[in-house]
Specification:
Blueprint: E1 2-6, E2 28-29, H1 32-38, E3 40-43, E4 49-54, E5 60-68, E6 73-86, E7 89-95, E8 104-112, E9 116-120, H2 124-132
Parallel strand pairs: 1-3, 1-9
Antiparallel strand pairs: 2-6, 3-4, 4-5, 5-6, 6-7, 7-8, 8-9
Length: 138
């Protein structure tokens, strides 16, 4: 099994209160090789399974299987992941879970290895500082 090593959190990070939300993904599309390296079945330290596939058009789709105790069955949630390059670093953009569903959360993709992916969440307090100082709009 290949592992996603989360230095903070993965998709669940898009649900929390201390998150950085942006209006649109930014950067340039990553190479096909980078997208292809993400393909496959991954798990995290909590036993969650993630399936990642890419389409012929270059879209990256993340599937998450979860247990729904009210339905007493597994459900699959699909999310489009925008994989973009900013400088030397790939970023993964996900739709946020806020009320209007129009903002994106993002993760820094630290490394992709044959058996593991390392990602980092942005530090919300640092972004808040930059907005307060006027160095970022928000």
């Amino acid at each position: 099994m290949r592992y996603i090593i989360l230095l903070q959190l993965l998709v669940v990070a898009s649900i929390g209160c201390n998150q950085v939300l942006i209006d649109q993904p930014f950067g340039e599309p990553v190479s096909k090789e980078c997208r292809d390296a993400l393909r496959g079945t991954w798990s995290d330290g909590n036993g969650n399974l993630f399936q990642v596939e890419t389409t012929d058009e270059g879209r990256t789709i993340l599937g998450i299987t979860k247990w729904d105790s009210t339905k007493e069955s597994f459900v699959t949630v699909n999310a489009i992941v925008h994989v973009m390059q900013v400088g030397e670093r790939p970023l993964l953009f996900f739709r946020g879970e806020e009320k209007d569903g129009t903002s994106y959360s993002f993760l820094w993709l630290s490394t992709i290895e044959r058996e593991s992916i390392n990602v980092r969440t942005p530090i919300a307090a640092r972004f808040k500082e930059l907005v307060k100082d006027g160095r970022l709009s928000g």
